[in-house]
Write a structure and sequence with these properties.
alpha+beta; ten-stranded antiparallel β-sheet; about 650 residues; four-stranded antiparallel β-sheet
Length: about 650
């Protein structure tokens, strides 16, 4: 502040002493103290008053010396007190609080004096007290140096004109808006030094800030998510709000938030990516190994680019962190969840990492089995789903909300043949890994052929009572000609797979295939043919109250198609060609979720005399690039289903 005042005094071009200019003041101001409302028993005794005045002078002097407000050299002190003169005065009678101008001599005050004699006597004594200092100022000046010193005190008397000009200039300087940033900074520092509230707030906030930061860091894992960060930050802020005070509160609150954010972002932020099964990546924030876009990729929209980066959120933050002192590593996502899944054909099993990308979930995992499937000759033929080659509508998966004739980026479904009709042994079931005991049997489906027609009524429907309910004319005709029908038998089954790799066949909604004592299948295909089947059902591997069941997902449909050339009974030996067709439709979530299917074909006609395996998608994803997670609510879970009508019969005469 002093350099600014010196510049101002120089600019006034007045005839004043250089000591005044460079000190910024004509002298070190002398401070006098007055006290009112003293106790009556002291006011009545002159010696008691004088004794109290001397005691107060000693207390004031010692207090100011210890706090370094006054020093030996008065020029270096904020103000001074006289060394050999009284500087404390106690009024001789009680006063009501009033304007301080009543203490001035009559010639300097516009107020009229009180009429009482006691007041006049007190004011006269006060005048003598103050005028001794005025006389000193007008004659020899103030010399309030303490002890022996060779530095003379600065003291200069000026004319009224000079004093008024300097006063006006300084008044404008101190009371008007600061004109330079430097002056603004000086004012702020000065305010901080003399403002008691600011000093208290500064000390209090400095004490509470590290405590709040420690509370934020308490019990934090090595890497943690944004939700955890915000929860811990809120606890730290609440603690700070409870204990911090004063005008510095907001400044230190911002410091707290910035420090906590810095801790989180400095290598401790958890990757925010979520797997397609709903689990967080366990790694710290990282780049993907293949996150090096080509020129074509850089031209794509932000939405597509984010999808290609496996839904990494807040990519801007990633880019900004390149300038930090720590290095962001490049690695693949990993949720730490590992399950066991079978191959397309079901003949092999291996561990599966929790997928973060649709192509990884529905295609690449199964491609890793191709070499061993080829070596062991487990797949006889592979069905290729038909798609519109020149379609302008490309989707990740085909579903009911796609434009007509859309095609997928890749096939999320698989349909393969693993053997001939005769290769399936109905007395032992499927001989594949992972199947639970007695749960590997397919359900027989009898097809009755007569006069070029086929009825797929199950055994329980051959009763007249059930037949009348069905009101099927063709079924009635076949019943009447039952003795002339030829029966062929297909086998079908819907396989479920749990995260531990346990597999089992269901014959109806939430009904695992059952066996008679002789080992033959007890169930028929009625419910499998005519009911919606759940996409998820409880696995029997954990059925105790203490251990909740794992949820198994429908993953494969087995269809054993019989030889299709059927020679009917009768003299003409008529030959009827019978095939089984499938039209899988999956609704993976409650409405308004779309229905998913492999292609826009009406149905897929399966070649006869084969064991076909339709592998369903592991993950279902719509056009918004968001997977349909398995619902946690049981009632909602029942809305996830494979629609009825998947199996049908095709006849060619």
């Amino acid at each position: 502040m002093q350099p600014s005042v010196v510049e101002l005094l120089k600019s006034l071009d007045l005839s004043i002493n250089k000591d005044w200019i460079y000190a910024g003041r004509p002298c070190s101001p002398r401070v006098l103290f007055t006290f009112e409302n003293c106790q009556p028993n002291i006011l009545n005794n002159k010696q008691s008053i004088e004794k109290l005045q001397h005691s107060l002078e000693d207390q004031i002097y010692n207090s100011l010396r210890k706090s370094y407000v006054i020093t030996n050299i008065s020029n270096n002190s904020l103000f001074s007190i006289p060394v050999n003169q009284e500087f404390v005065y106690i009024h001789r009678h009680n006063h009501h609080k009033n304007n301080a101008s009543r203490f001035l001599p009559i010639s300097f005050s516009n107020q009229s004096l009180p009429a009482s004699s006691s007041t006049s006597e007190d004011l006269e004594q006060f005048r003598r007290f103050i005028f001794q200092h005025i006389k000193t100022a007008l004659t020899i000046g103030f010399n309030d140096n303490i002890g022996r010193t060779n530095i003379p005190p600065i003291f200069e008397l000026s004319t009224a004109t000079t004093w008024c000009k300097i006063y006006d200039s300084l008044r404008e300087f101190f009371l008007s808006e600061p004109k330079t940033p430097k002056i603004v900074s000086i004012y702020a520092q000065l305010k901080d030094q003399i403002d008691i509230d600011v000093q208290f707030s500064e000390r209090r906030c400095k004490k509470v800030l590290p405590q709040a930061i420690n509370l934020y860091q308490e019990s934090l894992p090595t890497h943690y998510s944004q939700d955890q960060h915000e929860q811990k930050l809120q606890l730290a802020v609440e603690y700070f709000q409870l204990n911090a005070r004063g005008p510095k509160y907001n400044l230190y609150l911002d410091q707290l938030k910035n420090k906590c954010n810095e801790i989180w972002q400095n290598g401790r932020r958890l990757c925010e990516s979520i797997s397609l099964t709903g689990h967080n990546c366990v790694h710290e924030l990282h780049y993907l190994i293949d996150e090096n876009p080509t020129e074509d990729e850089t031209k794509e929209s932000d939405e597509i680019q984010i999808e290609k980066n496996n839904h990494l959120e807040e990519n801007t933050l990633l880019l900004n962190q390149k300038t930090k002192n720590y290095k962001i590593s490049a690695k693949t996502h990993n949720s730490g969840i590992v399950t066991i899944s079978a191959s397309n054909c079901g003949e092999f099993q291996r561990e599966r990492k929790d997928p973060f990308d649709l192509i990884e979930a529905n295609l690449e995992f199964y491609k890793e089995f191709e070499s061993v499937e080829l070596i062991q000759n487990k797949i006889i033929k592979k069905f290729n789903f038909k798609h519109e080659e020149e379609s302008e509508f490309v989707r990740q998966m085909i579903h009911s909300e796609c434009p007509l004739n859309s095609k997928p980026e890749f096939d999320s479904w698989s349909l393969v043949s693993i053997g001939r009709y005769s290769d399936y042994n109905s007395s032992s079931g499927l001989s594949q890994p992972g199947f639970m005991t007695s749960h590997n049997f397919l359900i027989p489906w009898e097809l009755h052929v007569c006069n070029g027609q086929v009825s797929s009524l199950c055994s329980k429907q051959w009763s007249k009572k059930n037949l009348e309910k069905s009101k099927s004319k063709s079924s009635v005709e076949l019943l009447e000609k039952k003795g002339k029908t030829v029966t062929i038998k297909a086998f079908i089954g819907l396989e479920y797979e749990c995260p531990l790799g346990h597999r089992f066949i269901c014959s109806g909604p939430d009904r695992i295939v059952r066996l008679f004592n002789n080992g033959s299948v007890k169930d028929d295909a009625y419910k499998l043919l005519n009911c919606d089947m759940p996409l998820y059902t409880a696995c029997p591997c954990r059925n105790t109250k203490e251990s909740p069941s794992y949820m198994a997902q429908a993953m494969r449909v087995f269809i054993v198609t019989p030889p299709g050339q059927v020679t009917e009974k009768g003299d003409d030996k008529k030959i009827t060609k019978v095939n089984i067709s499938i039209k899988p439709q999956v609704q993976p979530n409650p409405q308004p979720c779309p229905v998913f299917w492999p292609s826009f074909e009406d149905s897929i006609v399966l070649e006869d005399d084969n064991i076909w395996v339709l592998r369903l998608p592991y993950i279902y994803m719509g056009d918004e690039h968001k997977p349909y997670y398995r619902p946690k609510n049981f009632e909602t879970l029942n809305s996830c289903k494979i629609l009825k009508g998947m199996f049908s019969v095709v006849v060619n005469n």
